[in-house]
Amino acid sequence: MSIAFIWVNSPAVGTYDFIHHTPFSIQLGEVGLSKPLVDWINEGLMVFFFFAVGLEIKREVLVGDLASPRRIALPAIGALGGMLAPAAIYLMFNAGNPDTEHGWAVPVATDIVLALAVLSVLGARVPASLKVFLMALAVFDDFGTLAVIALFYTEGVSLVSLTMAGFGLAVLIGFNRMRISNMTPYVLIGIFVWVAVLESGVHATIAGVLVAWTIPLTINGRPVLAVIEAGMKPWVAYGVVPIFAFFNSGIHLAGITPSSLLGPASLGAGLGLFLGKPLGVFGAASLAVWSGLGKRPFGVSWLHLLGASFLAGVGFTISLFVAALAFDSPTALQGVTLSVIIGSTLSAVTGLGLLAAARQRLQPLRPDETFAR
Predict the structure, then answer these.
(1) What pTM value is reported for the model?
(2) What residue ranges are annotated as transmembrane (predicted)?
(3) One domain, residues 80 and 146
(4) Where do the DSSP E strands lie in the chain?
(5) φ/ψ (deg, to 5) at 328
(6) Which domain holds residue 166?
(7) What's the chain's average pLDDT?
C-alpha cells in the first residue's frame, strides 16, 4: 500500500497509471477477453481471495465453529448488527444523493486477515475463544458481503451466461459426488464457471465462492478441502491481497481536498467503519446475550467483546473492493479510499487499546467451552 501511495505522489506517477490501465487480452480462436490490468486484478486475481473465503466458510459450517447452532448464534447476530449499523451511518450522510448513495456497502465488510493479524499482536494475552468469535463473526460478515455484491452491484444480467455457469457448477457437484480426487477437472471447469459468471454481468468473484463449495471436504478420509485451504492461505495473504492493495490504494493527494475528504461518501465510509462496526457488533451481541439467544464466549469480558467489535471495523481489502465497484468518479473513489484506510487504522488502534486494557489471567478452556460453559 505504501509503495503505491509513494509512487502515485511522485514524478513517476505516469508509469503507475500506465501499469494500472495497461490492456491485457486472452484470446482463444475468435473468443477473447480484453480488460485493463486493474480489472484483471479485481475480477480475476481476487477470485482466488474469495475462493479461499468460500473454503473457509464451508469448513467452518460443516466441521468448525459454525457447525453447532449453540455456537453460531452470537457471532451471527453480531455480524448482522455489524453490517446494518455501518450501512445506516453511511446512509445518514448520503441518503437521497444519487452520486454517493450506492456506496452504502463500503463500510459493511471486515477484513478478517488484517483483523486477526492485529489481534495476534497481543498473543496469549487475549482468550483463545475471542479469536474464535472474531473468526466466526468474519465468516458471517464475508457471506453477507458476498450476497450484497451479488444482489446490489450487478448490472445487465445475461441468463444464457448464468445458465452456462449453473451447468458448470452442476458438473463440479457431480465430481464431488463421484469423489474425484484429482483437482485438474475442478480447475478446468472452475475456469469455465468464472468466465461464464464474468460474462453474465454478476461480479466474477462470486464464482470463487461457488466453486469452493463444490470442493469435497474429505475423500477416503483424506482432508482435501483443509489441505487446499492451508496451501492457499500464504498465496492469498502475501500475494493476492498485496497486489490488490497496490492496484487499489494508489491515492493521488493532488486530487484530495478537504471537501472531498469531508464529503458525505468519505465521512459515511470512514465513520461507518470506525463507529458503525463496533456499535453494530457490540450492540447486537449484547442484545443476543441479554435475550438468551447467544452466550458470551467463556473467559471473554465485555471489554474484550468491545475491543473485538472495534477490530471488526478493519475493513481494508473488501471495503476497497466494494468502493471500486460503487464509484466511477476517480475523485470520489480516492476520497473514499483514504477514508477507508483512516477508519480501518483508527479501528485497529482502538481495538488493540481496549484489548490491552482488558487483558486478564486466562482460564483453561475445556474442548466444549469455546462459546459457552
Answers:
(1) 0.73
(2) 72-92, 104-125, 132-153, 159-175, 187-215, 235-255, 267-290, 302-326, 338-358
(3) yes
(4) 23-28, 31-36
(5) -90, -25
(6) 154-202
(7) 84
